């Protein structure tokens, strides 16, 4: 019963946070900006290795009303130690631009953590097994009539960025474009299939984050990425989702990049 109550409180808090951020976003726009309508539901699915993954499925309210309308999808992947709620800073922008959003809790995080777990998985474990989380998410999206499963973008920060890079090369038929924010060097040394080049990746990184290791990782991964690709370097030490607060212009850069979903076959 306590777990159920905690789940309900967490869900209500997230919904309220989305509404507040959407309201703030609207207030910052010109007066003729269209009102943002959000339709949100919490969802659960299982990975190939029997991990239960929690997520939030958010689509434009107008699309929800027309059940035959398919929308391109953005799959959001948070950093290590965070959860899907932290993406509330960017979700309203994505929905306003017509995307369906699936934000998930990576294994061992948020509501994707097993009750019997005494400690979260290591970053190495998340990177090693996280592709299974992506596979489960993509399989779940296939069951959604309004999700255009052939036009999916992966956006990740930190270890989520590492997984976004891996996901673009692992699931190229569904994942058409990726955004990698503040990648770790673990992607290069442990996870990245550098022999299997991919493309359509935007790298966003700060020059001083992680003592320059994050920028080094982004540059290395970019060298193994075919065109189209782009690397944006910000002059600060901001890392991961903190970049949305330090460099708010990152939102527009990402939106322009993933717009390829609406034109790519």
UniProtKB/TrEMBL annotation:
Keywords: Signal. Residues 72-183 form the AB hydrolase-1 domain. Residues 1-33 form the signal peptide. SUPFAM superfamilies: alpha/beta-Hydrolases. It comes from the Bacteria. Belongs to the AB hydrolase superfamily. FUS2 hydrolase family. This is AB hydrolase-1 domain-containing protein. It comes from Candidatus Moduliflexus flocculans.
């Amino acid at each position: 019963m306590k777990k159920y109550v905690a789940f309900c409180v967490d869900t209500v808090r997230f919904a309220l946070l989305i509404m507040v951020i959407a309201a703030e976003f609207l207030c910052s726009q010109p007066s003729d900006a269209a009102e943002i309508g959000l339709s949100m539901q919490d969802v659960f699915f299982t990975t190939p290795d029997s991990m239960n993954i929690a997520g939030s499925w958010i689509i434009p309210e107008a699309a929800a009303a027309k059940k035959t309308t398919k929308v391109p999808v953005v799959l959001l992947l948070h950093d290590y130690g965070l959860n899907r709620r932290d993406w509330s800073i960017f979700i309203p922008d994505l929905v306003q631009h017509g995307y369906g959003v699936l934000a998930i809790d990576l294994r061992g995080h948020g509501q994707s953590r097993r009750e019997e777990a005494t400690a979260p998985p290591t970053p190495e474990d998340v990177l090693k097994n996280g592709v299974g989380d992506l596979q489960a998410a993509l399989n779940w999206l296939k069951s959604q009539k309004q999700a255009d499963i052939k036009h999916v973008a992966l956006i990740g920060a930190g270890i989520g960025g590492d997984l976004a890079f891996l996901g673009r090369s692992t699931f190229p038929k569904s994942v058409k474009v990726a955004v990698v924010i503040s990648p770790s060097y673990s992607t290069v040394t442990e996870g990245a299939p550098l022999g299997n080049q991919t493309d359509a990746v935007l790298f966003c990184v700060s020059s001083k984050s992680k003592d320059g290791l994050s920028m080094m990782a982004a540059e290395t991964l970019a060298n193994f990425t075919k065109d189209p690709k782009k690397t944006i370097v910000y002059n600060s030490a901001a890392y991961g989702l903190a970049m949305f607060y330090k460099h708010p212009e990152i939102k527009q850069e990402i939106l322009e990049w993933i717009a390829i979903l609406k034109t790519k076959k």
